[in-house]
Amino acid sequence: MYPDLGEGSRLRYSAFISYNHKDRMWANWLLKQLERYTIPKRLHGQDSPLGILGKRLPPVFQDREELAASSDLAQSVRDALLESASLIVICSPHSARSRWVNEEIRTYIALGRRDRIQLLVVDGEARTPNLADSEDDNASFPPALLEGGGQEPLAADLRDEADGKRAAVLKLLAGLLGVGYDELRQREQARRQKRLAIITGTSAVGFVLMSGLAGLAVIARNDAIAQRDIARQKTMTAERTVEFVKSLFEVSDPSEAKGAKITAQEILDKGAVRISQSLGDEPTVKAELMTTLSQVYLGLGAYKKGDQIIRDSLRLNVDDPGVRARQLMALGDSQTRQGEYQKAIATYGEALKLARDADRGNPELVSPILIGLGEAKSAIADYRGAEADIRTALALDIARHGNRNPTVARDLEALGLNSLTDGELAKARPLFERALQIRVPIQGIAHPRVSEDLNELGSIAYLQRDSAAAERYWLRALRSDELVLGPNHPDVAITINNVARVMLERRAFAQAYPLLQRAVVINLQQRSETHDDLAFTFANLAIAERGLNRPVEAERLFRKALMAAEMHKHRNRAPILTELADLLCERRAFPEAFAMLAQAEPIMRSDYPDDPWRSAWVANTKGGCLIESGKPDEARPILIESMPELRKRWTPSSLFGHRAEQRLNRLPQRTSSPRN
User: In this structure, are residues 197 and 458 in contact, taking their beta carbons and an 8 Å threshold?
Assistant: First the structure.
């Protein structure tokens, strides 16, 4: 258990950011990083220095009034320090010489919380200044840290090659949460299926099954070709592998499955049993087959099965460095998928050495191993190291295959994902676009990676507020998904919902309506009405119904959406409450409407800390309700105060921008009092 700090688990702020005004850029950056951080699920409900952990950190205190005219810290700042579980000091030569940063540190130490101080170095040398040297102006640690016999706290350094921005933030978060840095660093991160748009979704992977089965023979055949001129024994091994693979397809005709996962899964399982019970005198062939089966299982998401197969294969007596390199690459893939990133990095390193063996290695494996290594590094926020590995693979593949080969597209996608995870949207977008330009002419729109790339590009464009491009990308992704999965797959419904949402935001209600109806039908064929995905789809269909002047049906759908959102504590809960409240105000059900807005306000602030327009939307909706209830004087300041954030995010012709401007225009004009 952690001791109470002031109000214990009821402290108002998770951290107080102390900085000099010249470092405001870094303070703003850090605030956003902390506010958008999602605490790993496995830590939810645990005791910590912040109290019982939930999904997000408690608020972070940053902004403070300029204190130049004051002789002491403002009382509001003292109160904020008292209510903060940690003090984070932005360290630079500016802050080291700042009177107010030093005063904030002294005040926090006086509260008995010296051990809750953390440092983030952004400039200068990571030390306290030499007070005897008047020209020593490059130290970044404020002197107050050492007063009273204190020692310099551990610091995270943004400029450190080993740290980097993301790693530095994770070190601060580990201190805030009271957990080990490695524990946070090893957490599962969003990988290729990560969706950054406001509408969650996943790319379809069911088709990987059949393509993976076909790949059993293709991979073995490619290996035979690649090794043809090395040794006859290798060629015979590859041919024996192909022969065995072909026998697996005699178990049943995979074409009869027509994409049904259960039938194809049975083929894989039977093949795995046959391999385990045979080929005892051909360990190299057996190792090749087990490695390929492992990769197919991993691609299907059967991580435990794939991991067990590849580990069993490593017990075989294989003396071929090229084959062992491929086994280790598959093990690295498995470790990465299970979040064991440091282990994966070490495994890929071993595989790389064997693949590069001058006599018996396999140079064809160097590039995919480097890609796996780069992706594992990206997952622990070593973005620079990841980019270096992936670019090395890219150079190898361009030299070997030219710049229009699918392997080059794969490398560009890995680079794009690394940049995307690092938050560099402008850098990621052209990389995915280049990958598409390679894949579509060669592999067609139905290739699995095409759909994934289009979805990533749609998400990036949406986050860049380029809604028109997002809509175009998602429409193309929809066509790809329909070709691969058929028209009624739940993943198709997710893409439909994304497309329709962008249409709603430009007020194309009639265009979005049939798409959303279709998405609901697809979902209800496979899921209950309270499935979490329906919280989005029902709410969007309700917006379309309202836009088409069908308020009764809109209210019914909003209430269905709210039921699903409440059940799952869904992040669309506060937006649904706000939209439903606005609709209730139209029919003058004011008590319920205002109660919903009061409920939505803190939830919206907590679930969307980096989207200030959303809280402004709750306030703006409340202002509209006040006008409806005959209280324009109360509505006026609320509407006026909320407009800047809304105008910053939405144009006057958009869904939210249009409604906000309408409300503002409904305010009665103020008249001047006549003079005597």
Answer: yes
* 335, 310 Cβ separation under 8 angstroms: no
What is the domain-level CATH number for residue 61?
3.40.50.10140
d(CA 3, CA 631): 48
**What distance in Å separates the CA atoms of residue 540 and residue 475, rounded to the nearest whole number?**
17
Higher-confidence position of 221 and 586: 586
Residue at 235 is within a domain: no
Residue 152, phi then psi, degrees to nearest 5: -65, 125
| pLDDT tens, residue by residue, 259-270 | 444 445 566 676
| Closest alpha carbon to 85 in 54, 123, 56, 118 | 118
Contact 654, 507 (CB under 8 A): yes
8 Å CB contact between 147 and 112: no
- Averaged confidence pLDDT in the chain: 81
Domain end, chosen from 134, 157, 185, is at 185
In a domain, 345, yes or no: no
Give CA angle at 390 (385, 396), nearest 5°: 135
CA–CA gap between residue 446 and residue 165 (Å, rounded): 38
**pTM more than 0.85:** no
Tens of pLDDT, residue by residue over 121-160, are 998 888 887 766 666 678 899 999 888 776 766 788 877 6
Q: Name the one residue in this structure whose structure tokens are 């594992």.
A: 376
Domain of 132? Answer: 8-185
Listed residue (642, 653, 654, 559) closest to 601, CA to CA: 642
Q: At what angle do helices 341-355 and 366-379 cross, to 10 degrees?
A: 160
